[in-house]
Amino acid sequence: FQVHVIPLQNSGAERGGVVALLRDITERKILQEMRSEFVANVSHELRTPLTSIRGFAETLLDGALEEPDTARRFLEIINSETERLSRLIDELLNLSRLESHKWVPKRQPVNMGELIKRAVAILQPRAVEKNLAIKINLPEDLPVVQGDPDMLSQVLLNLIENAVVYTQAGGEVSISAAATQDEMKVDVKDNGIGIPPESLSRVFERFYRVDKARSREQGGTGLGLSIVKHIIDAHRGSVQVESKVGIGSTFSFVIPLEHQAASEDFS
Ligand code: ADP
């Protein structure tokens, strides 16, 4: 609590009592703590690739440049760490834009089936590299949703990319969409490594990873799922995950379908 004590004076200049103002500042304090924890996390996440870039560059300057094979290997690491760094910065900017309340998703008709096919086409080369099959199951009459096509593409890319990254070679990823009268549901299912039960409720937190080393190795930033959650929340939808270690995971999101035409008819 923040306490303000204001003395009251009566006409004879004697103290006539005090007014005490009590204000609950716990919420503000929690926000402040969250903010400084976030800054600490960001600094740590930025420092890790920088330390590695610097280390490999110094080793190259100290003589490793003379051995072409070693030099190439070190330069490849420097290159991939630089990529991860710029991806981290892009995702941080993305997240900060989503978190600023100024951002409102576009509302235009979106063909979810098309977005799914495009996201799969983008990720197909990575799946082929790992000998993974990606399947798409779409009903013929999938309705159009109102939403932000760029943002919804980002959701699909993040979920499908995770499914590809966290599934062993030879595995399978399948994406399906279905709609009821009121909502559309999209499932991204894999038969990969799965998520332990104690981590399930935490994977949507910023920077949370089940296995930091594995995520980093794959160029992960730990921000993908928190971006997904923000975007789906902004579409007044919900995201959920079901998973079993060693069996696989299914990430699903639901978006309400709005029957504007119907409500307009009634007005
Ligand atoms: P990252 O950049 O680490 O992939 P995300 O926010 O996308 O960050 O995901 C957070 C964590 O959730 C990942 O580090 C991983 O541990 C876990 N995860 C996400 N998707 C899957 C999946 N399909 N299978 C297994 N684990 C997953």
From TrEMBL:
<keyword id="KW-0597">Phosphoprotein</keyword>
<keyword id="KW-1003">Cell membrane</keyword>
<keyword id="KW-0418">Kinase</keyword>
<dbReference type="GO" id="GO:0005886">
    <property type="term" value="C:plasma membrane"/>
</dbReference>
<keyword id="KW-0547">Nucleotide-binding</keyword>
<feature type="domain" description="PAC">
    <location>
        <begin position="1"/>
        <end position="37"/>
    </location>
</feature>
<keyword id="KW-0067">ATP-binding</keyword>
<dbReference type="GO" id="GO:0005524">
    <property type="term" value="F:ATP binding"/>
</dbReference>
<keyword id="KW-0902">Two-component regulatory system</keyword>
<feature type="domain" description="Histidine kinase">
    <location>
        <begin position="41"/>
        <end position="259"/>
    </location>
</feature>
<comment type="function">
    <text>Member of the two-component regulatory system PhoR/PhoB involved in the phosphate regulon genes expression. PhoR may function as a membrane-associated protein kinase that phosphorylates PhoB in response to environmental signals.</text>
</comment>
<keyword id="KW-0808">Transferase</keyword>
<keyword id="KW-0812">Transmembrane</keyword>
<keyword id="KW-0472">Membrane</keyword>
<keyword id="KW-0592">Phosphate transport</keyword>
<dbReference type="GO" id="GO:0006817">
    <property type="term" value="P:phosphate ion transport"/>
</dbReference>
<protein>
    <recommendedName>
        <fullName>Phosphate regulon sensor protein PhoR</fullName>
        <ecNumber>2.7.13.3</ecNumber>
    </recommendedName>
</protein>
<dbReference type="GO" id="GO:0004721">
    <property type="term" value="F:phosphoprotein phosphatase activity"/>
</dbReference>
<dbReference type="GO" id="GO:0000155">
    <property type="term" value="F:phosphorelay sensor kinase activity"/>
</dbReference>
<dbReference type="GO" id="GO:0016036">
    <property type="term" value="P:cellular response to phosphate starvation"/>
</dbReference>
<keyword id="KW-1133">Transmembrane helix</keyword>
<keyword id="KW-0813">Transport</keyword>
